[in-house]
Write a structure and sequence with these properties.
By secondary structure, this protein is mainly α. The chain contains 6 helices and 3 strands, in the order E-H-H-E-E-H-H-H-H. The chain starts with a strand and ends in a 12-residue tail after the last helix.
Length: 131
């Protein structure tokens, strides 16, 4: 199969050219071959690799975590183990956000239009403000 140039890979993967160059710099993508004219020539599977990277990021994995997942190997935790850890982190964030949501609803219900005035009322629902 014919290799793809930077713009073709970027378009097919739904990223910009700078993203490709950045992934190359940080080691997520192998350095591509170059054409006689100096253009980067990527193997077609690069599009799939980029899509996998973006999907992992949407699941909350940082790029260094994605790099480890892509590197694989028997000594590293695999996707299942890392996904379990990430799920715990997401569930903790959801629990925190539920508290924030409930507190905001209570502030709305209490009619708190002024933060300073609210802080002096016993009905103030904002944590750590009323005494």
């Amino acid at each position: 199969m014919n290799p793809l140039r930077t713009g073709e890979v970027a378009s097919a993967a739904g990223v910009n050219r700078e993203t490709l160059r950045y992934y190359e710099r940080v080691g997520l993508l192998a350095r591509p071959e170059r054409s006689l004219g100096g253009h980067r020539l990527y193997p077609r599977e690069t599009v799939t690799v980029i899509r996998v990277i973006k999907a992992a990021q949407r699941l909350g994995f940082a790029l260094d975590e994605v790099a480890d997942l892509l590197a694989g190997g028997s000594r590293r935790p695999g996707l299942r183990d890392r996904a379990e850890v990430k799920l715990g982190e997401v569930e903790a964030r959801i629990a925190d956000l539920e508290v924030v949501r409930d507190t905001l609803r209570a502030a709305i219900s209490a009619g708190c239009d002024d933060l300073m005035i609210c802080s002096h009322t016993p009905a103030c629902p904002l944590p750590g403000i009323s005494s």
